[in-house]
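User: Assemble these into one structure.

Assistant: Restating your components, then the assembled model:
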Amino acid sequence: MPAGSSYAYYPGCTLHSTAREYDVSLRLVCQKLGIELRELRDWACCGASSAHAESRLLGIALPARTLQAAEEMGLPLGVACAMCFSRLKLASHELADGDTLDLVGRIIGRGFGNKATVVHMLQVLDSEREALPVKRTLEGLKVASYYGCLLVRPRDIVGFDDEENPQIMDRLVEATGAHAVPWGFKTECCGAGFSVPRADIQLKLSHRILSQAKAAGADCVSVACPLCHSNLDSYQQVMRREYEHEIGLPVLYFTQLVGLALGLEPRELLLNRHVTDPLPVLKARGLA
Amino acid sequence: MKMAQLTPAGTIHPFPRSGLQVFVESQSGQQVLRCYQCGKCTAGCPSAYAMDLGPRRVMRAIQLGLKDEVLASSTIWLCLQCQTCSARCPAEIGIAEVMESLRLLAAAERSRPAERDVALFHRLFRDLIRRWGRIYELGLGALYNLRGRHPFANLGLVPRLLSRGKLPLLPQRTKGASQVRAIFARVRAAEREAPPSEAKEGTDASRQ
């Protein structure tokens, strides 16, 4: 993936709503690095965890529509959300079966060859890591890279990093000059969509992750998934009430960290949109 | 009770495969008899503490053909699909996929979900995709609170999210929405034509 490369870009629902800062920071970073993102036209939801909870076929057909569109553009499909990424990868894997491909082609109303490759934007930026034009080193900032569950699992389908102790985001964080702290909860589940129907479970899991990141000495957490972000960032005040534990750990998208290192301003990167304000930590390190 | 039988390929099975096992194996592509009950799945499962059975016991229940027990358990709904169990299973069973197949069975059998709110959440999520083509967070929350009869759930965060512009008031519009509706309809039609395989009790000839 050399500089100057182009991707069919699939933001996924949340990057146009609750996670707009992920979309904005990703676009700015890609612009700086000469990576072209061509957003798919009229894209639709990947089905998340709900489509395949009722129907395997629906869980394949919704992402297949996106795979078909990327194939038509003749570009690799770049995905930002870890959940969308997982659904698209799994669908592409299932569509390797010829009969499934025929059936799904009829269901989405367009036959296709399942030729588009699916990459997460973390992989795209990782390929730029060695030549990252750092303008403002993030030296002194201690970052806990949090991958969540779906980015690196299942290994035989996603297959770009270790399932228990992945390194790709840590490498990128280190390339900005920051320090990636070693810690044990990189791929523990944050509770995902349970923040609505079983908020008690989500709160417990997210709190555990943040406590561990804090105990590892991190100043902030870096994420690559809007759902992880929402669970870890937005609920810290609820945690304070529920567990009488002040976390106060800002949660940033990895694109925002890279953006800062590339010299972009905190406001441009929408760092002011997080519920847990990252600016005090960044100011204390002379980064904002 | 039938005694152990010899399959055509010569593999000995202690019991004929139950309909439950046949369904799970055909839908998930996993072989549940490979499970030797080491318990790594339950040990690493983030939501096991809230489950009645836990993944290890669900695996055993499938092996024993205990369909009612499995479908009535909270486990199949409290599985977050995080895949930690699958990643760690020494027998290389995709346990998360097994759980997913059990939710499909619950849907096919219209069994009463032990976790009503989780099932409702998934259903509303699908309804919103069908309607708008994309997810609409505020609409999802509102529908969930109304239909689930917990009108004040999760409201604490709303003002903070709104003030940061993180919660759009209106759904996103996409021209793809009509195509998405057509996909839902065609999936339903295809599944009516060929429903997920409903295997008969004790048919063992298909194995190996």
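The radius of gyration of chain A is 19 Å.
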